[in-house]
Amino acid sequence: MNTRPTEKQSLLDRAAKNFGRLLRGRGVAAVLELMTIALLARALSPAEFGQIVLIQTYVLIVRGLFNFRLFEAVIRFGVPAIEAHDDVSLRKLLRLTLFVDLAASALATVVALLAAPLVAGFLAWDASLVLAAMLYSSVLVTAGIGTPKGILRLFDRFDVLGIQLMVSPVLRLAGVIAALSLDAGLLWLVAVLAAGTLAGNFYLIARGWREFRRRIGGSVLRGPSLKAWQQDFPGLRAFLTIVYVQTNVDMLPKHVSTLLAGSFLGPAAAGMLRLAREATKILSKPGALLQQVLFPDLVRLWGRGADSFRMILLRALMISGLFGLVFIIGSFFGGRLLFTSVLGPDYADAAPLLTLLLLSATLELAAVVLRTAGYAIGHAGEILRLHLVSAVIYLAAFSVLTPRMGLIGPGIAACVAATVTLLGIGRLVAKSLRNAPPDSDQAQAPGRPTRQV
User: Per the CB 3.0–4.6 Å rule, which of 342, 352, 356, 379 could disulfide with 374?
Assistant: First the structure.
């Protein structure tokens, strides 16, 4: 008897359940983060708020330079090991990614501390702001969270990840409230923001390795040599390289543009750009969560035929499009009222930018779903090249439009770049689905040979 429909529904139900767990955590976290930012924006002048944004952006840029998103590799190469009951390979993989995590976080911390005085001239920072930037750089000590995050996803502990998403926002909000009630200065505000981030990272690290001990046991630091890791995990280096570049293509242009906005238009404009972007996280964060939930199942489904793969992909695209449309309409009609009533008239100029960024985020949300499918199929290299082109287009349009059009410029640049990305990835995935065979009666072993990245 054919049980495939039941299997399809089971995968859909699991993906929906895991997405719901993460979405609840991210939804609460987004509200708390918006409350924190609103408190800071209302208590500080636009220029002071912008300086905090620039400090955070600087650290995020350094973090991006050393962010290999190792949880992607843990999923991509760990799922086959688990399904083959190969604990030895899984231990090797986790030990390797842990070493990369530790080295990357240490280098990121050192670079951030040393480079802070060097960027001070570009951003017009005085000595106190340089000190604040160095203080906030302490969060990079715990930036090596890729391996424990991958472990939790590998073993379907999305409930823990949902809780973890809320830890840092809760602590940052509490710290900001306490600091503002004591009339603390900018340095103390930066300190409590850093402390909240550190605590959230420590929680994730602790829970990830606790899950490893529960499921596998022992220490990941002991075991067979890693000298032959390239033979043990063929394609891992190429995968890590592509994911690393892809991550920076996704994130760095936006962070760099925040610094450019501060340079072109002043710290107040950088703060407004951050406010608008923070509001769009109501779309971008669910998109990232959807990618994390879909990726393991799409990897499995691509080895079994196109029908199940296509069904999940189309549903995810439909949901993401409708989700984004609701917020675009709400922003168009109520964005200005929201900013002026909550933050004051000084922030009204961020409202048109918000609508454009929500449109861009909706396009990016659909592109993220398609990109996840493209990764599962084996199109990581082509997708990376598309994102590189899109990033160049974005930065060029931003640099040309922002000095001439003010805060509308970043919104138009984001929409143009997102459209290029969506159309390009859509074409790649559609072509692969047209050429793929339908579902077979007998599921093939996970990891049907795909094009190697």
Answer: 379
Range with the poorest average pLDDT among 196-205, 356-365, 377-386, 407-416: 377-386
Gap between the Cα atoms of 353 and 165, Å rounded:
27
Crossing angle of the two packed helices 306-342 and 4-43, in degrees rounded to 10: 20
Taking each helix axis from N to C end, the angle separating 408-435 and 380-405, rounded to the nearest 10 degrees, works out to 160
Q: Give the domain extent around 387.
A: 4-222+233-435
Structure letter (DSSP) for residue 200: H
Residues 119 and 58 sit within 8 Å (Cβ to Cβ): yes
Quote the pTM value. Answer: 0.74
Distance between CA atoms of 370 and 430, rounded to whole angstroms? 9
What is the tally of structural domains in the chain? 1
Query: CA 305, CA 266: separation in Å to the nearest integer?
Result: 53
Distances (CA, A) of 391 to 151, 247, 356: 31, 11, 17
* pLDDT-wise least confident of 115-129, 304-318, 367-381: 304-318
CB atoms < 10 A from the CB of 360, how many?
27
Q: Does 131 have pLDDT greater than 80?
A: yes
